[in-house]
Amino acid sequence: MSRVSGQVLILAVFKRILSASIIINIGLLLGRLLGFVREILIADGYGASWQADVTVTVLTLPDILINILVGGALTAALVPSFTADKAAARALAYQASIVIFLFFLVVAGVLAWQAPVLVDLLAPGYSGQTRQVAEIGVAAVVLLLPIFVLTGVTTALLQARERFAIPSLGTFFFNGVLIVGLWMAIQQETFNVMVIVLSVFAAGTLRYVSQLVAVRPGIAPVRSMQPWLISGDLVRRYWQAMLSGGILFVYPVAARAYASLVGEGGVAMFSYAMRLIELPLLLCVSFLGVVLLPRMSEAYGQNRKSFIRLIAYGLQAVFLLGTVAIATLFVGRQGYAQAVYGRGLQPEAMQEVVQLVGIGLLCVLFQGAVTFMTAAFNAARQTQLPLAMNLLGGVGLFLALQAGGGRSLLEIMMALTFTYGLLALVYSVVLGRRFPGSGPWRDGQSLKFMAGVLLINVLVAAAHWWLLTSIAGGWLSVMLTIVAGVLALVLSALCHRDVRARIFKVSF
């Protein structure tokens, strides 16, 4: 591919990433801001107590199950099929909805029956009243799975159409309803887990209905069942993607389970830190796989060179955004954590959260790279490769956590971060061998770009740190961190030769 065509492609990719990222990030930001309000409400109402541990467990379980069993797998399997035959996409979505609803109706019943086993897996350190209340909440909330599972199909269909607004607002709708339910639960004299469960039900229903309206389904239930479109290949890719995504999603869940061994409040503390890490991961990096998956799926079948170039540019974008997020938030992590949890946590607890975030921020780059490379393999319908690598990483994480024995939250976070880093390295090696030229370091110019990004972020971070030492802190430090991040982002983007060539009409 010539330099001119490469510049045209990167401009198209850049415009698509920019427009989609604005849409997605506005929705995600609104949702995550309400998520922080939710965490603040829990911290203010329950602190680091057993009630906080149970609340976190019940609230996060539906998303855990959806992400393991449905969400990522359906997107990975259905988006390539939707883009390959756009005329049949609506009928395929209808058939998939019927099948997975009936299947997960049975799954929900089994999970409710085995609620004590789920509690053992999610929080083996629970005992006494904490365990008893957690079992009641878990048994009730898993019965809502058949309703939530349908959201995965509508999300995949909307993403295949490159309509990202409504799916990105799903978390906003979900957290908005949960906040109301949490407020009602906290106002009660005694802790009632069923109020929280009913809030989860209302939140999940609103999220699905919002996407169903956006899809505009046709009313033709009999005609939509013929011809039967769910092939053996689609089922195989779904199960492989489900196991692959499920294993990857379980990494932080397993780490949080070990956090329950640290003592009372361990689960809540680890969850608070992970929330601060997940926000930049979602806003800065993870959306790239969502945005480019439809384009990569089409390019794989039509133009293999464009497919490889899309992967390379996508990984370079992951490196740029991940590096900016890590450098900026590492320097400003104290003000970042204080702005979110300053009212609800004691100083000692706050410092521990800040330490955890300082280590875990590396996950933004590592996990973001793994997520994007998984999307690339899914676009090529090679779902077996992420499955094998994620399974290998899961074994490594288990051994690392088992060796630590849950002695401290810091050791647990270090084990999780190291696992993501090693997994990202394995992914990049396999991707480079499967699709030569697809790595972010594909040529000398790419290496210069990466070196420039590192240098820019070191310089901006140094100036950022110096300015933070000169101010009182509070919201002023948060604003300074935002300004430093924007500056680092703009200067880092200009390190790419093709970006400079399209903006300044020169190549240097």
Could you write a compact summary of the structure shown?
The chain is an all-alpha fold and 508 residues long.
List keywords for this structure.
508 residues; mainly alpha; 22 helices; 0% strand; globular; Lipid_II_flippase_MurJ/MviN
Give a verbal description of the structure.
GO terms for molecular function: lipid-linked peptidoglycan transporter activity. The chain has 508 residues and is mostly helical. The protein has a domain at 49-230. It contains 22 helices and no strands. The mean pLDDT is 82.
Mean pLDDT score? 82
Distance between the first and last residues' Cα:
19 Å
Structural class: mainly alpha
With helices defined by DSSP (H or I, 4 residues minimum), what is the helix count?
Answer: 22
Q: Helix and strand succession?
A: HHHHHHHHHHHHHHHHHHHHHH
Helix % is: over 70%
Biggest sheet layout: none
Rg, please?
Answer: 23 Å
Strand fraction: under 5%
The strand count comes to 0
Principal-axes geometry comes out as globular
Which stretches are low in confidence, meaning pLDDT under 50 for 5 or more residues running? none
Layout of helices and strands, plus pairs?
Blueprint: H1 3-46, H2 50-69, H3 71-84, H4 89-113, H5 115-122, H6 128-141, H7 145-149, H8 151-160, H9 165-168, H10 170-187, H11 193-215, H12 232-259, H13 266-302, H14 304-331, H15 333-341, H16 347-360, H17 362-379, H18 384-404, H19 409-434, H20 444-468, H21 475-493, H22 497-504
Helix pairs in contact: 1-2, 1-10, 1-13, 1-14, 1-22, 2-6, 2-11, 2-12, 3-4, 3-8, 3-12, 3-13, 5-6, 6-11, 8-11, 10-11, 12-13, 12-18, 12-19, 13-14, 13-16, 13-17, 14-17, 14-20, 14-21, 15-16, 16-19, 17-19, 18-19, 20-21
